[in-house]
Amino acid sequence: MRIVVAGAGPAGLYCAYRIKKRRPEIEIAIFEQNPRDATFGFGVVFSDRALEFLGADDPETLLAIVPHLELWNDITVVHRGQSIVIDGIGFAAIGRLKLLSILQTRLQSVGVAPQYNHLIRRIEELGPADLVIAADGANSFVRSAFEAAFGTGTTLLSNRFAWFGTRRRFETLTQTFRQNELGHFNAHHYRFAPDMSTFIVEVDAETFARANFSDMPEDEARAVCERVFEQDLGGEKLVSNRSIWRRFPNVRNRKWSHGHYVLVGDALRTAHFSIGSGTRLALEDVIALERSLHETGYDIPAALEAYEAARRPIVEKLLEAADSSARWYERFAEHMALEPMEFAMSYIKRSGRVDLVLLVGQGEIKGRPAPCPLPAGEGVQRRDSRCVSHSSRLRGQSRFNSRDNARSAKRRPSVWQVAQ
After folding, report:
1. What whole-number distance in Å separates Cα of residue 229 and Cα of residue 209?
2. What one-character DSSP code corresponds to residue 115?
3. Tens digit of each residue's pLDDT (9 = 90 or more) over 122-136
4. Is residue 72 classed as helix, strand or coil in its secondary structure?
5. What DSSP character marks residue 241?
6. Phi and psi at residue 144, in whole multiples of 5°?
7. Torsions phi, psi of 311, nearest 5?
8. Domains recognised in the chain with CATH numbers
9. 51-65 pLDDT per residue, tens
């Protein structure tokens, strides 16, 4: 049996590794159009529990990844110069090149070497195959060859974003919102190594046009972003890596497979980067695909049907959250009219996945009780500017500045702390 994998990103590498490790007699070919060390972006972020699926299934790979992870338990939202820390939401990050290196080593251990700098121009160049796994990203060549059969649809969001790095170390995943004469800016930033952070700059369409970013050289655009976020960068510069302005492509496919061709990762669907689940989804796709192949005895039609049946409900639920989050960011300039506490509440509720009663509590701003951020109703009763929950899951008062309460609530986001 011969299996072809298109794309040597995390999904392609890990898929080939899992197949070859369990079935060493299978011939596997991997084609990648870019050089071995090429990558877009800087870091990859996961929720702190997103890698747990590797623990029971592939502890060796997990153990190879864990020493290189940067970990934190907070999200910080910066609006109008005020920092609001949301505790109890853990994350982990790793450099994308480091993750690729780890997975390349895993693949090498089972005797498979990807063919880099190998551009496929015609689908026939993949050669004869019993199965072709399209792990070649949002602009998948394999998918485009059968676009009508897959039922592919791509919608470009209106905001623009540019993916930078910086030597500035950030202690939490931070969302910083700034406004100046050019318009509205948002930075998504987090460290992925002890001395390196991802720094994604996002602007709305009006700001993009007003700043004339479309006609601006990359270095000049980077300098503008450095001025906007000068206070946040603390004297450090932004680092470019093909840091051009892009519109996020929302990719969806009506069918996940066509004949012996199957889609995984971003070739199958994209999840907005604001929820940090793209790489996780891709890795979970290939785990499910390899498992279906194994359990069906490599009956390809049966395996592809089982793969989609197992994954689609899970993926669609997460995509609902991703799309909801993306819609919030598409209007972030409007949301910036809110006061900082209201703005942070709007942010944390954006994906529709947070249980509001778990955010109930009492905050302190410069030692003074903060007004209850939740509207009346929604299981909340106001009492002397405090919030009292009527949920059996959270009785009494939960103080926003108590980290112990957050962790005892099974790491649900229950703590708010305001700082200047």
Report:
1. 19
2. B
3. 999 999 999 999 999
4. strand
5. S
6. -65, -25
7. -90, -35
8. 2-42+53-70+96-155+250-328 (3.50.50.60), 356-419 (no CATH)
9. 777 777 899 999 999
